Amino acid sequence: MPTFLPDPRIETSILNFIKIHPNVSIALNYSDRVTDMLDDHIDLSIRVGSPSDSSFLTRKLSVVSHNLVASPELLVRCGTPETPKQLEEMPFVAMDSFGDSVVLERDGEKAEIHFQTSQLYTNSIIGALSAAEGGVGFAIMPPALCGEAVAAGRLVKLLPQWTLPTWTVQAIWPDTSRRLTLTKRLLDHIAISLKTS
C-alpha cells in the first residue's frame, strides 16, 4: 500500500533535499492523525487545510483538488448518480478530513450534498482508498492518489462535470523548533521545487 502526501511533488522535493544535503537526516512520518507537534517533537507538518493551533507558523505550498470516486461494483449495486442529490442515497466512506457535507459546483451553480449513509469511518485516506476500491462506498480522493485506480478501471469518477472545492496544502511549524533554520531551508527548497515543476 503506497504512502501519500497531499501533493506528490512535495515528497519528491523532500527526497531531493536529502540528496543535496548528505549530512541532513529527516524522519518522514505519514499519518492522517492530527498530532500535537510540540509533545511529539515534530519540526514540520504538511497538511491540507488550516491548523487548529493559530500560534503555529504557516506557509501555503500548493492547492489540491479532489474527485468523487466509486468502484464499478458499487455502481452496479446502487446505480450511477446523475445529479448531486442522488449521491446522498449512496453509501459514503467517511474520513477525518471531511465533514458530513460538501458543496459541488458547475458553471456557477452550486449544490450542497449531505452524506447520509456510511458503514465505514477511517482516519486514513489510504484506508478510504481501499474501502472505495472494495465497493464499501464512494469517496472523496485527490487525483494523485486515485489516478492509477481510475486508469485501471478499479474506480470510476462520479459527476465529472461537477467540481469539488480546492484545499490549501500548508506547511505548519512551531517557532520554538530547535531546528528552525533547517526547517526554513527545507521549506524554501520545497517552495522553489513547486514553482519549477
Question: Largest sheet, if any?
Answer: 3 strands, antiparallel
Number of helices: 6
N to C succession of SSEs: HEEEHHEEEEHEHEEH
Percent range of helical residues: 25-40%
Unreliable spans are: none
Strand content: 25-35%
The tally of strands reads 10
Amino- and carboxy-terminal Cα gap: 26 Å
What would you call the structural class? alpha+beta
> Would you tell me the overall average pLDDT?
86
Trace the largest sheet across and list its strands.
1-10-2
Radius of gyration: 18 Å
Coarse shape: elongated
Question: Would you write up a description of this structure?
Answer:
With 197 residues, the chain is an alpha+beta fold. The protein contains six helices and ten strands, in the order αβββααββββαβαββα. The strands form four sheets. A three-stranded antiparallel beta sheet has the order 1-10-2, with helices on one face. Strands 8-3-9 form a three-stranded antiparallel beta sheet. The protein has a two-stranded parallel sheet with strand order 4-7. A hairpin with a 2-residue loop joins β5 (101-106) and β6. α1 (8-20) packs across α6. 25% of the residues are buried. The model has no long low-confidence stretch (mean pLDDT 86).
Describe what is shown at a glance.
This protein has 197 residues and is α+β, with helices and mostly antiparallel strands. The chain contains 6 helices and 10 strands.
Task: For this entry, give a set of tags.
alpha+beta, three-stranded antiparallel beta sheet, 197 residues
